[in-house]
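Bit of a strange request maybe. I'm writing a small parser for structure token strings and I need a real example to test against, not something I typed by hand. Could someone generate the tokens for this chain?
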Amino acid sequence: MLASLLALPLAAAAEPEPTEIVVRAKSKDAKFIGTSMGGAMVRIRNAESGKILAEGLTEGSTGNTDLIMKQPHRRHQSIAEGAAAFRTTLELSEPVFVTVEVLAPYIKKQARVAAQTQVWLVPGKHLAGEGLVVEIPGMVVDVLSPQTHRYTQMSDAPFDIRANVVMMCGCPISDGGLWDGSKMEVAALIKKDGKDFATVPLVLEDTNTFAGQLKPDSPGVYQLLVYAHDPRTGNTGVDQVSFIIK
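Reply from user aminoacidic:
Good idea to test on real output. This should exercise your parser:
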């Protein structure tokens, strides 16, 4: 009897099954982060071992503005029609618990946000269609003027402060637009020689561009931090530069 049992073949391991995964990064209060912003870096890891199972950038457009931002949404209704996504197929032989990390927008290091979630993946049970949507809060701020480490003279004062501000998907901010710059707070916090010096409100000058003026009282090393904040959503972005007045 024992010999007969030993002669039985061991149970074969389950054959790997292709399992499709779609991951999207959606800017909070805006659209999807795609090719126009350098994409969002997606990494899918085995949550237990940390091993990277797949990684890559989201590719595609920001999506349909009317569908995402203007029309009421019904339960189970997809809003990701044509929107950027990272797509991969994993060969899974057993269920695996994964951590999905998203870094976005990937090319804008001063604005890049890391967000993550965790899900179970079961062989052959696709996470496709709308896929897994990870929300990315914030705004992208780029200080245009003054330039980093610029040397200038007191005689050139006052100095223009200008900053470009967009949503994390690159969506435009304008006066009275869908993303209304007149309802956002944008300002420059200025330090001189390491000490607080002034706060300069910036006003919307043109689409995405906010401006103001710095009036220094003496030479020194100035640090300038520009923040943009939308009190309706909590979205916030920051950029900073330093420059020298002789």
